[in-house]
Design goal:
440 residues; 5-stranded parallel sheet; 6-stranded mixed sheet; globular; inorganic pyrophosphatase (n-terminal core); 17 helices; Diaminopimelate Epimerase, Chain A, domain 1; alpha/beta
């Protein structure tokens, strides 16, 4: 991959002498951190560029991109090669998503992707960081953004050689503990807004939080509760046990335990999971520019982002309650949650992700979330656990015949469909899921 990066950089250097660069990135945490790393690297490289953050890379968005620019996609576009082949531009893609088997890389596209270069799996921000570091070693100060992208894309459990290098560059503080965030704030507030795992009777319920802490025999000190990272081993174990009992008596505590990554932001240590959630929240509430400003170190953006994040957490808790209380479509190892207008399309993917980590669903269960977006429906699919069907393939088999495209991974994928295909989509989705179960 590093040699491919060198060649891509050399090509961009030549093209940029006569053309500006248009950076297009996804609006989730990995996409925003990818954009921030790339923007900072291009600025220091003294290149003329502009930046666009998008929710989806549909044919209309691609067609509207300027034809007199170099197009640089970060954390997306691997699933849109057929449309990109129609553009006259020189196109560069820094991504990590799977490439559809039926698509070839067009001649006008240079792709840097772990799937192509047989490299250690990275998030989009990880790929962009290697791009930035290959341009100049002075970009090592952007490594913390790659760590946030890694956590945002749930890749922190597989710390291979490349990620270890990135963690070393970022000078991250790593602590072993309970995977709740933020680990740096008072525990009662952390538990109240905890959504991964979603704790029944505790998430969104302050009385339930206090009851849980009482059961765990964790007391206030100097008028407030400790933060998660300040708990001693005995307190940590009691808290883990209390949460496990709340979560349907789950006996395997290992899923709740892992590494806490503390990154230096605005001259203080912050929990990378919390930062990832904050960035994601800003974008999903329609403020990608604030999320980007936060990543680039703007104090004003930080203040705005923190306010947006509070609103987002309240909206998310309300959405989880609605998903839990409404009548869903259920079958053998699948659940379809149709939020319609009651759950925002920008939140439905997060709701599906949270529920996929809930002990209420056994491993291998597919959770499909749906929500209206004007004349379209946002669809997000998640796999509970690590073993089961490829949810991207499940959606692909239904959506492509309907004229749509699917993006994502085997255990987390999404798409947009027209509203007038709603009934057909649900009917075919159920049929596909049942057929897959029979095959298994």
């Amino acid at each position: 991959m590093r040699e491919a990066l060198k060649q891509a950089i050399k090509r961009i250097e030549e093209l940029a002498k006569t053309k500006p660069i248009k950076v297009i990135s996804h609006f989730d945490t990995d996409g925003i951190t990818s954009a921030a790393v790339t923007a900072k690297a291009l600025q220091r490289w003294k290149k003329i560029f502009s930046l666009k953050i998008v929710k989806n890379l549909d044919p209309e968005t691609i067609a509207a991109l300027p034809e007199d620019h170099i197009l640089l996609f970060t954390d997306l576009a691997s699933g849109s090669l057929a449309e990109l082949a129609k553009k006259p531009n020189d196109i560069f893609i820094l991504d990590h998503h799977e490439i559809p088997e039926d698509q070839e890389i067009p001649k006008n596209v240079t792709m840097i992707n772990p799937h192509i270069q047989n490299h250690d799996m990275l998030s989009g921000a990880g790929v962009c960081y290697l791009f930035a570091k290959t341009i100049s070693k002075n970009n090592k100060d952007l490594a913390h953004l790659a760590v946030i992208g890694m956590v945002g894309d749930l890749l922190e459990k597989d710390i291979h050689k490349t990620y270890q290098e990135i963690l070393d560059d970022a000078q991250v503080t790593i602590k072993r503990g309970l995977l709740l965030y933020p680990s740096t704030r008072p525990l009662d507030r952390t538990l109240q807004y905890c959504s991964n795992p979603y704790i029944p009777g505790v998430t969104g319920e302050y009385k339930g939080v206090i009851d849980l802490l009482r059961e765990a025999n964790i007391q206030k000190e100097n008028g407030k509760f400790k933060s998660l990272q300040d708990l001693n081993d005995d307190e940590m174990q009691k808290l883990i046990t209390a949460i496990a009992l709340k979560c349907a008596g789950k006996s395997d505590l290992s899923e709740y335990i892992g590494n806490l990554f503390l990154v230096n932001l605005f001259n203080q240590l912050e929990d990378a999971r919390e930062v990832s959630a904050l960035i994601n929240a800003c974008s999903r509430m329609g403020h990608s520019e604030i999320a980007l400003g936060y990543c680039l170190g703007s104090p004003q953006a930080k203040q705005q982002a923190e306010k947006i994040y509070i609103d987002y957490k309240q909206s998310l808790v309300a959405a989880l309650r609605h998903a839990e209380n409404q009548e869903n479509i259920t079958g053998n190892r699948y659940t379809i949650i149709h939020g319609r207008d009651h759950i925002k399309d920008t939140i439905i993917g997060t709701v599906a992700s949270i529920l996929s980590h809930s002990p209420a669903y056994e491993e291998g269960t597919i959770i499909i979330g749906m929500a209206y977006n004007e004349d379209k429906i946002k669809v997000s699919a998640r796999l509970a656990g690590k073993k089961g069907r490829n949810v991207r393939e499940v959606l692909h088999n239904i959506v492509v015949p309907l004229g749509g495209e699917v993006g994502g991974h085997p255990n987390a994928a999404g798409c947009m469909i027209d509203k007038n295909h709603e009934d057909v989509f649900i009917e075919q989705l159920q049929r596909q899921l049942e057929i897959e179960v029979v095959k298994a």
